[in-house]
Amino acid sequence: MYLFHIRTYGCQMNERDSEALSCLLEAYGHQSVTEEESADVLIFNTCSVRDQAERKVLGKIGIMKRLKAQKPALKIGIIGCMAQRLGESLFEKLPHVDFVVGTGQMNQVPEFFTRIAAGETHLSALSLEVEEAELSGHQGQSLTSYISVMRGCDQFCTYCIVPHTRGREKSRPIPDIVKEVREQVDGGSREVLLLGQNITAYGVAEARKEGIYTPEFSAFADLLQALQEIPGLLRIRFTSPHVRYMNQKFIETVCRLPKVCKAFHIPLQSGSNRMLAAMNRGYTAEEYLQCIEGIRSLAPQAVFSTDIIVGFPGETPEEFEQTRQVMHQVQYDMAYIFRYSQREGTRAAKTLKDDVPENEKMERNQILLSELSEGVEKRNKAYLGKTVEVLLEGKSKRNEERWTGRTDLNKVCVFPPVEGFHPGQLCQVKIGRTTANSLFGDIIQA
Ligand code: 5AD
Ligand code: SF4
């Protein structure tokens, strides 16, 4: 039996994978510990999306060499995207690492635990070809369950490493997902966050193979409809959709189904059509805006968040200005803004020069961030005096004497505890104060 600790970097899919791996290892009799210091095995679940993410974890594992010299029984494993991308070459850079497991081979980890216990080292499992059944996480451990509905990405945006580290798109059948969600809800979950790198392409690869794909196809809409029927499930969220597959069926479904939260994360990346084409995004800024308008016309309360890349190769000040304009038009509630980071092996790295200076990227990043928070702060003021429905999550991390929860539009609310209420319950909160990040108020008792 090993005590293990998993340190997770990167996206929500990685968080989900760590959760599922933890559950699997516990089923084999190992035990998860919260303190790194008490672990016999340290597992790093890594991210490759930006260079900085990789450098951070490489630095951290580098330092572990000294720790391992003091504590020779300590074992170290690297899993996830960076493990997939760099593979066994990691053993050259970091000889104190015991195993490397890629994104499609997580279920090998229990066997590796047995083998390292027997003294083996430098083990690797890196194939993306093997069919791996989806591992499930702990049942109902949290109010919000992360559910992986598809893996991989076939989009090949020119800047992105994900298609190289997570392989081709593969969707789980609807009944499998419904079963997992039902189990999570039976265990106490009230909300699901459906995960897929290109989630609106759910079922598309399979439909293409069968020759039944048409522009009206949206298996994702069918999945949402099936989840809507699950009793006890209150809210459905998903990330990340791609405008290319957001057809009328999808738009009509997300707007119609009451459990689908009307807060949509829709990556824009750039507001310039020349940049979007160079990124191979497969849509124009006008098409993107049409999708937003399509949703707004059916669900006027809808709010949006996005991903933006500034400083993509060749991005001129005018093209950056176009991104700014689209952001201004949409009035996002939240945005992740990234500085372009060249990733070896991607088409952009092979064919385009990373020519926007770092300080210029930084400045563009700063401009978008400050405009964004100004806008959100202003719009949040509209909540003053209003009553919102909040899914109660529990104690606020910042202030243990306060409770916190979110509205269906993903606004964080903070309020004083009231006896008789418990996490997982919906409550009405009257808002008395707002900032750019949160709404503050009091529970109204019926
Ligand atoms: N450089 C900067 N940002 C990137 N992203 C993906 N690849 C890169 C890169 N090479 C961003 C995109 C994507 C998000 C998950 O990360 O905006 O939507
Ligand atoms: Fe990367 Fe584009 Fe796929 Fe998203 S859709 S994972 S940005 S290649």
Order of strands across the main sheet: 2-1-3-4-5-6
Q: Alpha-carbon distance between the termini?
A: 51 Å
Bound molecules: 5'-deoxyadenosine, iron/sulfur cluster
Individual helix count: 15
Any low-confidence stretches, pLDDT <50, length ≥5?
Answer: none
Domain unit count: 4
Any idea what the CATH superfamily of the largest domain is called?
Methylthiotransferase, N-terminal domain
Helical content, roughly? Answer: 25-40%
What is the name of the CATH topology of the largest domain? Answer: Rossmann fold
Main sheet makeup: 6 strands, parallel
Sheet-strand content, in percent, reads 15-25%
CATH architecture label of the largest domain: 3-Layer(aba) Sandwich
Characterize the overall form. globular
**Structural class of the secondary elements?**
alpha/beta
Count of DSSP strands: 19
CATH class of the largest domain: Alpha Beta
Average pLDDT across residues?
95
Descriptive report:
- The chain has 446 residues and is of the alpha/beta class.
- It has four domains: 123 residues, Methylthiotransferase, N-terminal domain (Rossmann fold, 3-Layer(aba) Sandwich), CATH 3.40.50; 120 residues, Transcription Regulator spoIIAA, CATH 3.30.750.210; 119 residues, Transcription Regulator spoIIAA (2-Layer Sandwich); 60 residues, Beta Barrel (OB fold (Dihydrolipoamide Acetyltransferase, E2P)), CATH 2.40.50.140.
- It contains 15 helices and 19 strands.
- The strands form five sheets. A six-stranded parallel beta sheet has the order 2-1-3-4-5-6, with helices on both faces. Strands 15-16-17-19-18 form a five-stranded mixed β-barrel.
- β16 and β17 form a beta hairpin.
- The radius of gyration is 23 Å and the shape is globular.
- The chain starts with a strand and ends with a strand.
- The mean pLDDT is 95.
